[in-house]
Amino acid sequence: MNRRTELKVSAIRNGTVIDHIPAEVVYHVFGILNLDQTANQVYLGTNLDSKKLGKKGIIKISGKYFKDKEISKVALVAPNATLIEIKDYEVTKKENIHLPESVSTIVKCINPKCVTNNQNVPTSFTVTKDHKGNMKLFCKYCEKAMSQANLEFL
Amino acid sequence: MSKLKGRSLVSITDYSKDDILKILDIAEEFEQNQRQDILRGHVIASLFFEPSTRTRLSFESAVQYLGGSIIGFASPDVSSVTKGESLKDTILTVSNYSDLIVMRNPLDGSARYASEVSPVPILNAGDGANQHPTQCLLDLYSIRKTQGSLDNIHIAMIGDLKYGRTVHSLVQALSLFGATFHFVSPDSLKMPSSVKTVVKNAGLEYHQYTDLTEVIPIADILYMTRIQGERFPDPLEYEKVKNAYILSNDMLDDSKETMKVLHPLPRVNEITEDVDDNPKAYYFQQAKNGIYIRQALIAAILGLK
């Protein structure tokens, strides 16, 4: 690991860093994780130079670790982001966020006639990619496909 | 005893090729011998949360030909739905009184949800604009009966290919059997790319047309559909295409001897009445085949065949 990057990441003593967020969705990730409502210290950087992404964003949250379900939400808008966990200034976990195979209860179905929008039924989707490599969510119930642009989080 | 016993049927994709062929074989048996008293002592619930004539009557007649009893409702006005009961509660209650639930509901995905909460199997008789698997099976039955086999047929689908759920399911099912597809529609109602991907992934061919006359000489099956005005956000767009595909008797002169015209019905004007007397018209027999298919499904799911 590059020393400079490590220093950047290690700037918090305990907590989580989400790196390699495409700059255009960094505020979206901030909202998905409800960081506007947290009492923890949060650092947000955006439009940072990135070899991989051109411009990237980074979010550091002090004193907080996320559950898989919360990270799944991030993967839907920033599927190539990196999740880093820090304990006592040490990186204890560093992994690429991957698209989950399925997501339940976190996204609303786009179809107003879907049973999940009309009865008390939790949503459930299979996550796939189309022939162009774009993410698609297939509703388990109404069998409609949604693209990233249509996502509405519950 | 088949492996279909106790399994709900929500979407045609719930069935494998073998499952489909098994149902068609049982249906053939019922066509030979329609009145069999095998459902005596069984109760089938028929829950129609929206009106339907053809599907409901053919299910109910299928049950009665087999000697079974039916409970249920033909419209939600007479059920506890009007009191605000949830679908889950209705299904759990009715499952106490019946061996199998046949359900039509206007909500997309309601049948999948019902199958998850119900202790008895659910037979989907149409969930909104989503799936109508018994229509698909009766289409397959009609194709096999008139063509001798489901393998490698040339099927032309005409009309509203964008919104028509019957054509989408039929493409999915026929892709298991190696068909060649000919899609005829106005540009605004073309087959969705998700359905064309199913064809591609199966290693099969499809061709797209805007002119109906091009496909008549090559098709084994002409599958006509109605262009539904309510699908169009702009009435002017509907006016442009509503009469685009009308099949009349003189157009069938160049068709293959064994070719048959299918239609899920009801028709409006897309097949003129002079076609009805042509031996190639098969749509009314197709609707009749629905009873054999529904008999076969009920018998197989209850483990009686």
Question: How would you portray this structure in words?
Answer:
The complex is a heterodimer of chains A (154) and B (305). With 154 residues, chain A is α+β, with helices and mostly antiparallel strands. Chain A folds into two domains: 3-96, Alpha-Beta Plaits (2-Layer Sandwich); 102-150, SH3 type barrels. Helix content of chain A is 16%, strand content 36%. Chain A is built from three helices and nine strands, in the order αβαββαββββββ. Chain A has a five-stranded antiparallel β-sheet with strand order 2-3-1-4-5, with helices on one face. Chain A has a four-stranded antiparallel β-sheet with strand order 6-7-8-9, covered by helices on one side. In chain A, a hairpin with a 3-residue loop joins β2 (42-50) and β3 (54-62). The longest helix of chain A has 10 residues, at 68-77. Chain A is globular. The longest helix of chain B is centred in the C-terminal third of the chain and has 19 residues, at 283-301. In chain B, the strands form two sheets. Chain B has a five-stranded parallel β-sheet with strand order 7-6-5-8-9, with helices on one face. In chain B, strands 2-1-3-4 form a four-stranded parallel β-sheet, with helices on both faces. Chain B has two domains: 12-131 and 290-301, Rossmann fold (3-Layer(aba) Sandwich), CATH 3.40.50; 134-287, Aspartate/ornithine carbamoyltransferase (Rossmann fold). With 305 residues, chain B is α/β, with parallel strands linked by helices. In chain B, α1 crosses α9 (283-301), α2 (54-65) packs across α9 (283-301) and α5 crosses α9. Chain B has helices at 17-32, 54-65, 87-95, 110-117, 133-147, 165-174, 193-201, 235-241, 283-301; strands at residues 43-48, 69-73, 100-105, 122-127, 154-158, 180-184, 206-209, 221-224, 260-262. Chain A binds chain B through residues 111, 113-116, 118-121, 130-131, 139-145, and chain B through 11, 86-88, 106-110, 112-113, 127-131, 194, 197.
